[in-house]
Structures are given as C-alpha cells and as structure tokens.
User: What shape does this take?
Amino acid sequence: TDAVIERILMDDTSRTDDIWDDSEPLPAQRGAEGELLNTNSHGYCVLWCDQGNPHIQVGALIGISEQQRRPYIGIIRWLMVIEHSLRFGVELVSPQAEVVHIWDNAQHGKGKGLLLPPLKGLRPDPEILVAASGFHGGMLVHLRGADTETTMYLGKIREATFSFTQYRLLPSTPELEST
Assistant: This one.
C-alpha cells in the first residue's frame, strides 16, 4: 500500500472537531490504507486495501496522504467493484489546505473549514470548504488559522454535496463589514 485515505466530513459516527483536525500529519492508523493504481495532476484511482466496510460515497471529501505528508484534498467521483475489490476515483481539489476556525459577523462560532489557496491555472481566488449547512452566499465570515486571520465574504457556490459546500471567497472592506 502506498497511501493513507482520511475521511473528511463524511463519517456520521465521528465528531466534527475530530474530522477537521489541524494537528500535525496524521499517523497511518488514523486512516485506511489504499493502493494508488494510477495518478495524474487531476486525481487518483485508488484500490481500497483495508478490510471491512469503507463507508465511502460518491461526492464525499477525503484526504489522500502519501508517505506521511499532509493529505491532498479530494472528492470521490466514482466507485466500482472489480473482482471483489473496491476501486474509486478521486478528483484533486487542492494539494494544500489550511484548517480555519469560522465566526459570523455577530462573532458566533460557525465551526471549522478548509481554506484553499489560489492556484495558478486552477482557481484565481481563495476558496473554502465548509459543512453542508449553516452557511450562505454573501455571508461575512471571520477566518482564523495557523497562518491566516482575515475577514471575507462567501461568494458563489462552486460545488455542494451531502458532505460539504465549496465557496469562492471575496475580499471585504471595512465599510461593508459595518452594515
């Protein structure tokens, strides 16, 4: 096996704070093992190597970590059973993300999100992955992470599934924040 698969925002038996963990790279026992059958700049084809029920679904967010590095963030796009083996396709969303704590304009905690930095040729603006409910476009949010402290607006929804919503982030101005 050559990858550790981390479930993100998809396992109802886990607490949200455990899923949005902003600690150091995860040890192999926290995830499941998979074999990368093929890779390219857009994603992976993964063979599930762990025994038992993987509890994964199309549209779920996962992290794939090679050699104990922080996981790449991806979305499961397809599942297939071939010769009693589960294979699935993962579209890469970002090679890096920062866990951020989120507050609304009234300073009410809204949980955590994954801040995705701009990537040349892929996304010109930062984006954020948040839980599937509790957020809306136009919402002013305050974000604080290890390397980030900023206030931005949630812009257009880029994608929404049962497990997450991905928003484009728009800059805020002090005049707009007070309204």
